[in-house]
Amino acid sequence: METLKMSSRMSLVQNQILPLNFKPYPLIHNSRILGVYSTKGRTFSFTLTCKLNTVKGNKPSKEKSRISVPGSDGVAPPVVESEEGSVGNGGRKVEEAKNGVVGFGLLKKLPRKVLGILSNLPLAIAEMFAVAALMALGTFIDQGEAPDYYFQKFPEDHPPLGFFSWRWVLTLGFDHMFSSPVFLGTLALLGASLMACTYTTQIPLVKVARRWSFLQSAETIRKQEYADTLPRASVKDLGVILMGDGYEVFSKGPALYAFKGLAGRFAPIGVHISLLLIMSGGTLSAVGSFRGAVTVPQGLNFVAGDVLAPSGFLSTPSDAFSTEIHVNRFSMDYYDSGEVSQFHTDLSLFDLNGKEVMRKTISVNDPLRYGGITIYQTDWSISALQVLKDDEGPFNLAMAPLQLNGGDKKLFGTFLPVADDNSPNVKGISMLARDLQSVILYDKEGKFAGVRRPNSNLPIEIDGIKIVIADAIGSSGLDLKTDPGVPVVYAGFGALMLTTCISYLSHTQLWALQDGTSVVVGGKTNRAKGEFPDTMNCLLDQVPELVESSSPEEPNILSGL
């Protein structure tokens, strides 16, 4: 039996400090105390909520409570119940007590307000559009160029769009968009919104979905999205049918609860985590990778660390940066029309001791990976021609790329001087090559002289000079990259595809109650709501109907029709 206990000091407060009259309601745990306050001819009532002790040995509450009297002309001294159960004013001011409580409340509410703002759907959509716009702008603006390039591309006298000059590009870091503070900040804000939405919306939905409870009222079941009544049926038979359809079934007396597709409730959380992985991997790639490009003639080598340059403040070199890379051979494949179809580079990698640690022939879309460094085949050129002149040499003539009017064709040229003491201008034999298959030669007057294939050893005489094209030396265009974010991005995309498929699973909940010889069934689902009634009707049609035996001597039996 519960009894109401009041401290003796509370009575002292009632008799000496404030003219309070209490009218308690005993035998009610956590009840309210009604009182009357009278002063200066004014009388009004108030309520005080309190927590009562019981005779079962419950310990007194250690919560501090405060009694405040509204409507008075002055502010009454606070009456605070201490942890030991005594009451006193302690010399405190009401303002101090209020400030303490209010300050704690603000600290508790501040994170919720921030989470509420971040989890706002219109804000998240705006952030996604902002990221997409910045990415599109990053494709429009050439990345990683020298400042002079932007001075010419975005001049101040005639800026694009009337205002977008080079100052915008360089000040906001749009020349390296995907590592600029603007882009990374927007990406971080979008990630914060995803986490806030997951914490405030998706996780609570999963917690609610995991709880299972029985509905003991037929009226409550009939208020579900789908409801039906099975006459002459058993709730146990319904449970068997539901289990056969993949439902998790729980029963308690005449009540039944079943669900399936709970993974569909977890899928949105997985989608958010996948997106966070993709954004984290992209950010790590932007601020923690190394990149570089080099064109190396056949037979030469270079050190990986001399080519790779950091792209962000998290870029950290590895031991593989000291690897020496040697171009053993460069070759090209051609279509029947003579166009270049593929080019290959035979590479050897050596450690600091000069030991070959790896060798591979790479091509376009078939890179080499070693120690976190990836080497891609991206381009080619012709570095030199080896020429025999009157059986002397060979001489290496450097080839220079020539600019053509439009198109993506390549053309390289070189010049073999011919001594002429009587001419003030140096003249010679010109040689042009589109690829490594053939070389076109012109005499010192610029007239066509002939075509020779490298390594054919077939001489040609031009202006009295015998020329042999011994070889054409190609150069391999290589891109080197270290990208620690690639595995994270791949994992994020893989998880995104998986969780997106899982999210299409419907989370269905069913309740049933045995009401005499009838079973009241109700349920709801979060997807495929249009098909849900038809699906339920098919399931309920399988529930056997209870019938009585026609023989009066035999007891009632359950049979399925």
From TrEMBL:
Membrane topology listed for this record: Multi-pass membrane protein
Record GO biological process: cytochrome complex assembly
Principal subcellular localisation of the protein: membrane
Residue span(s) of domain ResB-like: 123-383, 437-534
Top-level taxonomic group: Eukaryota
Disordered: annotated segments: 57-92
One GO cellular component, as annotated: membrane
Subcellular location: Membrane
Keywords: Cytochrome c-type biogenesis, Membrane, Transmembrane, Transmembrane helix
Transmembrane segments: 117-141, 182-201
Protein name according to UniProt: ResB-like domain-containing protein
